[in-house]
Structures are given as C-alpha cells and as structure tokens.
Design goal:
about 15% strand; globular; about 40% helix; six-stranded parallel beta sheet; alpha/beta; 14 strands; about 450 residues; TIM Barrel
Length: about 450
Amino acid sequence: MKILYIIPNFDSYVLAPPLGVLYLSSYAKKYAGAQVVIVEALRDNLSDEQIINIILKENPDLIGIHCLTAFYKQAVELSRKIKSLEKNFIVHFGGVHPTFMPYTTLKDSNADFVVCGEGEIPIVKLLKNNLNPKGIQGVYTIKDLTDDDTLVDGSPVLKAETVMDLDTIPFPDWELLPPASYPHSPHAVIARGNPIGIIMTSRGCPSRCTFCSSNNFYKGIRQRSIENVIEEVKYQIKHLGIRELQFTDDNLTLKKDYIIKLCNSLMENNIKIAWSTPNGVRADKVDKEVIDLMKKSGCYLIDFGIESANNQILKNIRKGETIEQIDYAINLAHEAGMVTQGNFIFGLPGETKETIKQTIDYAVNSKLDRAGFFALRLLPGSDLSKKLKEKFSLNLDNSFISKPDWLPENLTEEYILRTIQKVYWKFYFRPKRLWNLLNDIPVSQTKYILRCMINYHLFKLW
C-alpha cells in the first residue's frame, strides 16, 4: 500500500524536518512493506492546490496529515478540500492536537479517523487490516466519539500502543527529506554548521509543567541505547554530510549517567562535530561535571526553559525549579564557554506587572546570550488548559508566535504584546550581547534573521 504524508504549509519561523513523520515512514516500510511519499508543503511553500495535484498524481491508498495546534486551521482546511475530491481518498490525522481533541478534529476536517498518541504501531496495524480502524487501540472515527472527547460508551479515549524499545524503530527516513534540503538553522537558533542533523535520543518527559502537553502525550520517558544513538550520528555524518547536530529531546540531560555516557561515547568514537540542545534542558539536571563534559564533546549552545524569574510563578506551574537553580546552571554554561539561550513566557498564572518586570530585569542582566519571549498559549493536553477550560477559548487562528489565549487578572493583551516587543529590544541592544550575536550570524542567515524579527513582531504589533 502507498501512504502519502502531508506537512501543511503555514506561517512559521521554525523550519525543521518532521521527525515524527520520518519515523512513521521508516517504520511502515520495515514492518508493513509500505510505499511512502512525503509532501513537505512548509519547506517547499506549496499551496493546497499544488498539494492536491501531487495527491492526484501519486494516487495513495491512505493520506496522513500531521497536525499541531499552530497549524490546525491550515490542516483541517486542506483535509476538507481533499475529501471533496471526486475520488474518496482515505484521510487520517495524527499529532498532538488530534490526540487531545479528536472529535473536533474529525468534525472540522471531515477526515476518516484520527490516531491518538504515537503512530508507529497503529499505522502498521491499519495497513495489515486493509485500512479498517475497528479494534485498533488509539484509532477512532467520529462515530466512536462524543463531542466531549470521550468514547460513545462513556469510557475515556485511549492512546495507541507505544513502541517500548526505541532501538527497534529504524532511523528516520532521511532519503525522503534529507537535512541538506532544509535551510540553515531549522530550529530558529543561529547555527554553526550546515547541513544540520536532527536527532532524538528519547521520547517523553516526566516533569509535570502545567503549560506543557508532553507528559500527557508520552507518559514517562523512554531512551534509546547510547550505541543506537552513536550509530545514527555516524550515519548522518557519513551519508547525509551533516556538519552540526541538534538534539531535540524534551530533556537530553534528564538522567545524568545517560548524558555522561553519551558525551564520552561521542569522544571515544572520535566524533568531532558541533552540537546543541535547541529544545531546552532543565537547569536542575545539569551540574559542572555535566556541563564541562558536554562542552568537551562538542556542545556549543545550551537552551534553558526558564519561563519566569518569579519563584511563586514557577511553583504555580509546577516547574520544579527555582530561579536560583536556573541562574546557577546558566552561569556554569557561560563559564564553560557555551552560548546560553533561555525562553520566557509572559502571562502565566499569578503574573502581574511586577512579576513581568522582575523577569525582564533578570533576563536583561543575566549571562544569557540569547532569549525568546512568548505570550502564554494554552495547548490542548496540558494540565493548564484543562484547569482553565471554562475560562478561555482556544484561538486556532494564532500561530506559535501569537497573542495570549488567556489573561491573568489586571493584565491586558495589549500590555503583554507591547511588553514582548519592548523586551526584545531591551535584551538584545546591549553592546556586548549585540556584538556577540552579530559575530555569530553567517551571511547566509541574514534573510532568516530578518524574517524572525518580523515574525517576533519587533517592528509592529499584530
């Protein structure tokens, strides 16, 4: 059978290979003998009409649409167009958003079914079951669901079975979407090498941050063996020509013995390549030994999810860290000679103008080289979105860089948006920080940086 996966086109400052889809492709090929086509509409800037022309040409047995909240509107509109074609193509949705909002996704998209949770096992079962979803855990049609996202018999929606041994999943299907086909700096960080290899050593995060849906999507953490990771690193260097690695785990440093073994294995295998952690690590999961070893093995940039400089807000969101711990880790990385990056969220529960000022003052005066500042988005599947369910309406017209979905008492949308705009200028226009940033930007990334500045609304509000 032939599967055609689609990455919809939408307005994004991040342009990276879709690892989840690439894993599905390699898994379906190995365990079900499938043919796979991937339409990367975001990378190739394809219109819906161009996508449909590809579909008609390829004539797949099954179409899968990857869907996150950031591009939900584009995904469901595309699906409706496909389902209106004369030929009745079978369409299914997968991803975080459909996992937590399956009924609405099916209703809005007219798709045939959704896959809730990780897709490897259900896609193979679907292919072997002649595309009949009945009885496959985690796969649901609209007839199976009620509008409150429970099953018609009143039981909760179950996510699909998961592959417990990640080593049994083949490497991502890089032949279909090679790293060299993507622009410099796919994860919105200024990179040092191109092409950039994307790699994950684990799935999941056991932390319970209320604004994040990762823990509820994956439940716990599974890690690949170090040997399997090193084998893929060697493959990407030799066969894909990558010159930099970006580890995109939810938290690469979660287990100290694991990160130490990984760093030592990179050096023992004489793998000399720059690498970074653009998705962020927990500050309380690094110490001087770990930081020094990461630096020695090639890590040049480390990102921290900071969120707020106010300890009560960190407690409110179950961050499990204090700003003192975070500051200590940033200083360790700075002293080791790494580029330090941090991300902040304005508008979390308990936020006031005073706590915002506290966060801004911290960020500006910290040892951070780079920072991202965002308005709060209430993502489906996060504990915070569940808690505030009756107090907000999810704006599906928003992109990731967007207006807040919910506002704390006494704060306005305009205040938060203007604060974000101002703090970027205040943070980056300090002589040393600006000088270091300009020195790090290759000429090839100038256009990308300008686009980021526009997407971050540094010149005008929404």
